Amino acid sequence: MSFDLFERRRGIRIPHDIFPSAKYPPVISVAIIVLVGLCVIVDPYLNFRLPSQSNSIPPLTEAEEARLSDLQFHIARLQQNPRATRMRDPSGVGQLSLKEAETQFDALKKQAREHEALEPIHPFTLHLGKGLQPVQWFTAPFLHSSYVALLFNLYMLWMMGLIVEGKLGRWKFGLLFLLLEAISNGLIQWNSLGVTNPVPPMTCGMTTIIFLLMGIAFFISPSRNILIATLTRHHWRDDPMDDDVTFSFQSPFFHFGILLGYGFILYLFDIRATVWVVAPMLGWFALGMAIGAIISRLNIPGDDEPDLVDFIIGV
Fold first, then answer.
1. How far, in Å, are 216, 241, 281 from residue 152 at the CA level?
2. Which one of 47, 67, 149, 292 is CB 3.0 to 4.6 Å from 216, fit for a cystine?
3. pLDDT per position as a tens digit, 25-59
């Protein structure tokens, strides 16, 4: 028995629906959307103010840390000998007065403080360059630092939930979502191992998971029609014989349209984003297709709907 999410009614409606109707309602997808909304409301730290790549301050090098320690010792010596206006520089080259030593010390100390201020202090974001922290793999997706990413993720999670959860059911989809969290965030954190000054120092959101789900949906449900909007004609004409006007896209065209649209939106904000953001997203989309192939070939959905291979060869 299929799950028909939307009933016909008078007026204009913009459903995010699919045809044929899904077998299961998107229960887990709705629960995740609600949790994301609650996290945005109650989280006092992020508030869409993560440090950007342009204002990251590099940490002190080993030489600068040694210099900081030497200057501290030099200042203490000058303060203990008030008659000595200048003393030999700790490095052994030239001489420094108390004022000159304090100026150099304050500059290095300021740099250290500014870098520490940008260190990831939120325990639930995905910290980069600080080892593997599995708990963050499952908490970071519920936090967001961009309104664009938040709206895109919630919209696409609802749509992908209708397709993927509609085929798999709540329990299989819930386990799949946990698996995608571990895969995407685990790979991101693993890729940052050994990086001493990652930019940015932390990240969050579920954009990578969304593109994985898009790849999965693209492979397992290419024959689905995704309804974008339905306009009821008799909203303005009192004629019961008029039918609804429905705007829909077949699954492959919808997904490619979303990819192009997402790239265009990022292009409006930053031209470089079309390369440094969209290219990795295409990689996540391709990985999602590979996962979708495994799901389909293992017949985890348990139905006879053609997958992408069957769709291409016309089975």
1. 18, 37, 13
2. 292
3. 899 999 999 999 888 887 755 545 554 443 455 66
Task: Quote the CA–CA distance of 149 and 141 in Å, as a whole number.
Answer: 11
Distance separating alpha carbons of residues 88 and 76, to the nearest angstrom: 13
How far apart are alpha carbons 9 and 24 in whole angstroms?
A: 22
pTM, rounded to two decimals: 0.72
Helix extents (H) in the chain: 27-42, 62-80, 98-117, 134-139, 147-160, 166-168, 170-191, 207-220, 251-269, 273-276, 278-297, 308-313
> pLDDT for 77-104, tens place per residue?
778 777 777 777 776 667 778 788 888 8
Give me the pLDDT at residue 35, please: 93
Q: Which two tokens stand for residue 248?
A: 């829909």
196 within 8 A of 59, measured Cβ to Cβ:
yes
- Compute the Cα dihedral for 263, 268, 269, 272 and give only its sign: positive
